[in-house]
Amino acid sequence: MSDIKSVLFVGVGGQGTILASKILTIGLIGHGYDVKMSEVHGEVHGMSQRGGSVSTQVRFCSKVYSPIIGEGSADILVSFEEMEAARYARFLKTDGKMVVNTAQLPSLPVLSGDCPYPQGIVEELKKHVPVWAFDATKVDAIVESEEPISLAPNREPSAIDQQIAENIFPYLHDGITLQLGIGGMPNALGSLIAGSDLKDLGMHTELMSDGYLDLYQSGKITNDKKPFQRGKGVFSICMGSKELYEFLDHNQDILSAPMHYVNNPETIRQLDDFISINSCIAVDLYGQVCSESAGTRQISGTGGHLDFVTGAYVADHGKAFLAMPSSRVDKQGIRHSNILPKFTAGDIITTPRTQAPYMVTEYGVANLSGLATWQRAEALINIAHPDVREALIQAAEAQRIWRQRNKC
Fold first, then answer.
1. Structural element, H or E, at residue 339
2. Which end of the chain is more exposed for a tag (fewer CB within 10 A), N or C?
3. pTM to 2 decimals?
4. How far is the C-alpha of 195 from the C-alpha of 181, rounded, in Å?
5. Distance between CA 270 and CA 265 in Å, rounded?
6. Which tens digits make up the pLDDT trace of 320-364?
């Protein structure tokens, strides 16, 4: 009878536990299965109509004789309430799977103050079995589809991407928690780290991309040194290759959390030795950074750019790096600097000059934190493309932010 499949539905009175099992039963019968179903009202509290525990059991195969699911024999446990998932976890097979609605409906002992509602239930369950947890109150519908999942193919790092990555690499050390953006440069940096002696890195990022896959596969990311959520890599959204998605599937060492939590500077602040690395479009000599537009032409949104700059700025030993090519060449072969004298064409300022972090181009790194205006101009001109440095110096002089003792 090893081909019999068992599904256990659990919840509290009024949640639709019995209805869900009936819908499943009807569907299975329609597909030609022999199905046995049973229901148990108020197994624990004896008051299923007033929020007591309710469980229903569905077993199906070509031939089934009993609906009873014993301890350790359920293939799937579907829990409509978080505490009920913990109550019935013992019924799940060691290789079973669990679906949990994170809604919390306190039982009478909790409501009467006799005991507190248990905390950290889902996190504890994930240590033992694959758990898909979500807040069902925020789901309107789940639609099954045969459409393949969208992929975000890797962009091969350019020579400039590689040089920028090499400029950032000396600032990295064992035990840091790393946030990477997406694109050729983060992938280049990921490859650099994967082939290095660095170890015990952590992941806390808005976007998980293939750059992280290399780091996990090479054993560089362990998350063992994170001051909290130790052992867990944290991300909010994921874009990448099929291999990346397969790596994430039922991976209990990685947590996908809401963006309002992951990107919150207060969350990031608690991560000592936090390193944030993102890209930008341009910077002016005052340290204002644009990562959203070219003039008034919109290119992207704010995203988590400023969140991670802010969080890294206030984290102990935190550092934020904003990287870009020093210049670009247009179709007519004319070179344009991405380090500008000043923003005047309607460019959207993403990071204000008061929070300007480490700026990186293929020509070096400029730490702008705490620098006077003329010092910032000098530091930025030093990492500009050599062909445009003299013009930037002349502009800085005209703007009265250049001193004769400055050397470029």
1. strand 339-340
2. N
3. 0.69
4. 20
5. 9
6. 999 999 999 999 999 999 999 999 989 999 999 999 999 999 999
Tell which residue, 95, 44, 24, has the closest CA to residue 250. Answer: 95
How far is the C-alpha of 303 from the C-alpha of 327, rounded, in Å?
A: 23
CA dist 21 → 76, 186, 206 (Å): 12, 47, 37
Active site residue 206: yes
Following CA atoms 399, 401, 405, 407 in sequence, which dihedral angle do they give, to the nearest 10 degrees? -90
Helix (H) or strand (E) holding 275: strand 274-279
- 230 by Cβ neighbours in 10 Å (0-12 / 13-18 / 19+) ranks as exposed
Residue burial 323-361, b: 16+ Cβ < 10 Å; e: rest: bbbbbeeeeeeeeebbbbbebeeebbebbebebbbbbbb
The first and second tokens of residue 348, run together, are 């959207």
Catalytic-labelled residue, pool 81, 82, 84, 206: 206
Over the chain (408 residues), the average pLDDT of each successive run of 10 is 84 84 91 87 46 86 90 92 90 91 78 80 86 78 80 83 96 96 83 93 94 92 93 92 90 89 95 94 96 89 91 95 95 95 93 95 96 96 97 96 67
CA-closest candidate to residue 250, choices 129, 139, 142: 129
Instruction: Judge whether 50 and 7 are in contact, CB under 8 Å.
Output: no
